[in-house]
Amino acid sequence: MKKISQIIFSVLAIGIFLFGEIAAFAVGEDIVATIDGTNITAEDFIEAAKYQRFDLIQQYNNYVQMYQLYGIPLDAAFNQQFIDILDGSERSDFGQMVLNQLIYNLVLEKKSEKAGVTVSDQEVNDQLMQLFGISTEETTPAPESNLGLMSSDVVGVEPEVNKELELKKTIDEYFSSVVQGAFSQDYFRSLVRLMLLEGKLQKEVIFKEHGFEAEMVNARHILVKTSELADEIIAKLDAGEDWNALAAEHSLDTGSKDSGGALGWFGKGTMVLPFEEAVFAMNPGEISQPVKTDFGYHIIALDAKEFRPLEGDALDKAQMAVFEDWYEEVSSAMKIETFDNWEALIPTEPVFVPVEIQPTPTAEAPSATVEPQETVTESSPDAESIEVTPTANG
Questions:
Q1: What residues have CB less than 8 Å from 353, skipping those under 6 apart?
Q2: In terms of DSSP bridges, do strands 296-309 and 213-224 run parallel, antiparallel, or are they unpaired?
Q3: Residue 308, SS3?
Q4: CATH class of the domain comprising 213-309
Q5: Per residue in 196-235, pLDDT tens?
Q6: Residue 56 in contact with residue 47, Cβ under 8 Å?
Q7: Any idea where the domains of the chain sit in the sequence?
Q8: Sheet holding 336-338: strands in order across?
Q9: Are 132 and 170 in contact (CB under 8 A)?
Q10: What is the greatest pairwise CA distance in the chain?
């Protein structure tokens, strides 16, 4: 009985060992990362890496086309940047970027699902139509004729469904002639859906409680070279002389001197620090003492100060900061595990073929005293032509 128990124990031990080995093999071969129990597979990684390779190669081709259009010679350093990333010393960095993007995508998916944020197939189609330059304007419904037929049957107005057919045909042609199997249409659609999902999650959830406004000032200035001249101008202003006339006469800021030195509305981080500190410390209606910067001496007049909605680059920067803080918070609260197998999975397709760099010709005057001799040279192949094609992003 004791011997049978030992045999059973040995079998169980072997089974547990083999199960552990099989499980480790499965994780090592098929899974590159997990997030709260959801796996990112090797297949996911390979397709994402192929897409990123395709995108970088398209960028390279577009650069080559632009350089050739403007007659700018390509150099070896330009080519080497792409060679290093795609096939050389920076392949691991490339693979890490792909893995980080997959983790980001899955975090976004999970948080969107939790927040109830979704993107419909129609929204994806509409975005694809924009990407491929297909109009999304709806056809005006045709009035019914006396014969009981839609007038579109008479005048030949195409029904709305043809837009979907046009989109399908355009995408099929693009994948056939350009993508050539680098990644699937389903994967491409998933990227478009994620792009829309990110925007909706930001707008409907992440940015919802943020006003994105900042204290701004509306100011004018007169810029001069010396403190003595600045003092003279301030004395003239105190004596009642016209600001605009003094700005037009003395200011070194040629872009604003003829408009009274007007700078318009601006927030912090726009002007050099001494100027910024001075103007934001002022009250509306005040004129500063000379403020020294690397440009000279400024006399500043503050016309208004208030909190205003951010716009343009300032808004983009503020939103990015909020989004980065949000992502750091939610991702750090999730259980994210990565494995070491992804480096061996980095694909080499699509194949990157850089344009051959042509040597710069050197002009050497032939010697009149030397008779030409017959020489044999190996013919060098022409630089391989790379077809330049637009990406889906234009």
A1: 384, 386
A2: antiparallel
A3: strand
A4: alpha beta
A5: 999 999 999 999 989 999 999 999 999 999 999 999 999 9
A6: no
A7: 213-309
A8: 38-41, 31-35, 336-338
A9: yes
A10: 116
